[in-house]
Specification:
Layout (H helix, E strand, L loop, with lengths): L5 H12 L37 H16 L6 E5 L1 H13 L17 E2 L5 E5 L4 H6 L4 H18 L1
Parallel strand pairs: 1-3
Antiparallel strand pairs: 2-3
Helix pairs in contact: 1-5, 2-3
Length: 157
C-alpha cells in the first residue's frame, strides 16, 4: 500500500524521518523497505471507482480489519490518514467491543486524539497530492503526528 506513488513518497519519507522505516522510499514489493513497530492497512481492500470508497465498502471490509487487529496485540495507536480512515477506526472500535467510543463520536481533525481502552486514534490529513501540494499537509505536520504516535505508544507499554 502506498508503494510507488506520490502519497507513498510523502508517507514513507515521514516514517523514515521518525525512525519507523529503514528507508524513505518504496517503489516495489522487494525494494528492502522495513517498517518498525508500524502496520499499514486500508479501511477498504479493493480499488473503488474513482478512488472514492463508499461507506458500504468500508463496512464490508470491517471483518478483515478486526482479524488483522487481533494479530497485533501490542498495537497502542492508530494513525488515521483522513476522515474516512477515522470513521473506519471508530467502527473498528465498536466491532471490537471497545466501550470508549463516546457519543457523540469524536470528529476528525488533523492531530485530533481519541483515547480508548485498547488504543488511541490520531488524526492526520491524508498524504494525497491534493493535500501535500496545497500545503494542507506539510512535512512538519505529519512529523508531529508520527512523533506523538511514538510517544503515546512508548507510554502505553
Amino acid at each position: 500500500m502506498f508503494t510507488g506513488d506520490r502519497s507513498g513518497d510523502f508517507l514513507f519519507a515521514a516514517l523514515a524521518r521518525c525512525g519507523l522505516a529503514n528507508q524513505a522510499r518504496s517503489c516495489s514489493r522487494d525494494d528492502g523497505l522495513e517498517l518498525r513497530d508500524t502496520w499499514i492497512t486500508a479501511a477498504v481492500r479493493c480499488a473503488p471507482p474513482a478512488n472514492r470508497p463508499t461507506p458500504r465498502e468500508r463496512d464490508a471490509c470491517l471483518p478483515w480489519s478486526v482479524r488483522e487487529l487481533g494479530l497485533l496485540p501490542r498495537l497502542r495507536v492508530l494513525v488515521c490518514l483522513g476522515a474516512f480512515a477515522w470513521q473506519a477506526a471508530l467502527r473498528l472500535r465498536e466491532a471490537l467491543g471497545d466501550d470508549s467510543v463516546p457519543a457523540p463520536r469524536p470528529r476528525f481533525a488533523h492531530a485530533a486524539e481519541a483515547p480508548g481502552r485498547r488504543y488511541t486514534l490520531l488524526g492526520c490529513y491524508h498524504p494525497s497530492q491534493q493535500n501535500t501540494f496545497t500545503g494542507r499537509l506539510t512535512q512538519e505536520m505529519i512529523d508531529a503526528v508520527l512523533a506523538r504516535a511514538r510517544s503515546l505508544a512508548a507510554h502505553a507499554r
